[in-house]
Amino acid sequence: KAGVTQTPRYLIKTRGQQVTLSCSPISGHRSVSWYQQTPGQGLQFLFEYFSETQRNKGNFPGRFSGRQFSNSRSEMNVSTLELGDSALYLCASSLEPGGSYNEQFFGPGTRLTVL
Amino acid sequence: QKEVEQDPGPLSVPEGAIVSLNCTYSNSAFQYFMWYRQYSRKGPELLMYTYSSGNKEDGRFTAQVDKSSKYISLFIRDSQPSDSATYLCAIPNPSNYQLIWGAGTKLIIKP
Question: How far apart are CA A34 and CA A68, in angstroms?
Fold first, then answer.
């Protein structure tokens, strides 16, 4: 079974631009969560989607948004990029929502660098 | 004070040594504890989970929870260079079901 895939793997943008990251979950998994990972803050939860609905949201500004499609694929968007948005963005899928009590399977991440 | 504290390391030990990785937490309501392993340029993968107190063993790995001290540990016996990775503890917050992550400890096993 194919794992979680994320595209692109690497991205370089400049301040003020916007970016869209994509995640394809494991086949049959309906829940997708997004995380930001930085050396200083570690892993921080962004949001969780299940059946095209956002079920949970972390403490990030409104510049961070996401969506989920009917095939469970998910995208996240960051508008008006700031230097501090440079991070590894990880997507994780699970069979059911409330992902923390269900095993989450992570993709390799998208490394975003904001210049 | 962070809800979950973990020393980021790095922790460097010789091959074959017993490794002890630890996290402390502040909320006594936490009941479920996870350890993830993250190799370089990969996403985290679930290694082990434990519920409440006690030990859980899986091959060379043992997860231990001491709820009285709010302290969780992961022991690796007969450590191998392939165990070199970052180990993250993660605890579900029972109020919103989201994972609270430790900073991760970078482990280096020297051949």
Answer: 11
